[in-house]
Amino acid sequence: MSYRESLLKLLRLQPRLVSHAYDRLYNRFFFRFFYGSNIVLIGNSGIRIHPSTRLNIHNSRIIVENGVLSVGYDTVFESKGVCGIGLDNSTLHIMGSVKLHPHAAIGAQNSTVMIGNGTVINGPTSIISKGGVRIGEHCHIAMNTTILDCDMHKHAFAGETPQDIAKEIIIKDHCWVGHNVTILKGVTIGEGSIVGAHSVVTKDVEAHTMVAGVPARKIKDNVIWEP
Fold it and tell me: Which of 38, 96, 117, 226 has the fewest CB within 10 Å, making it most exposed?
């Protein structure tokens, strides 16, 4: 390798080395200093959060239990980017190792969001909770998914009192939620199920079934999928 090629290689590596060093410094010192009191690590656990992540944590906790929460990193495509975590009187409970890829966002108010081991949430996906969201183990949430357990505003019919009704959403183990899916309040998606791209899920989904459409309906039974 010539001197010129060696120099060019070094120059290409330098931004990566600087970025890696800054990531380590942020996670080890700055993030811990400002948000350490909001973080609970149980067992052999850790948290790695990209410095661009937008955090707003008020009277809330992030609990990581026997695993690592990775926020804002995508090792497959070697990309990094902005994520958002906003918690108001709420808990984000991570049970195992979970990845929030770049541009994923979680917002919770007076609620608990639980995510199980091995689950990957791609961005730009939004989880918005006022009634509770539970996502099981080894789930794959594809890009641009919206998981919304409330109406986000008060409404009613004539003669009624306007309310923002929230109902828990449950996504059980090993579910695959396709691109651009919307999952609405009160829905339970059974274990091993597949939700087709561009679907709107308004009713419960049986285990090991494939659903698709607006609103989503059953397409096939006894489905099997692998990541």
Answer: 226
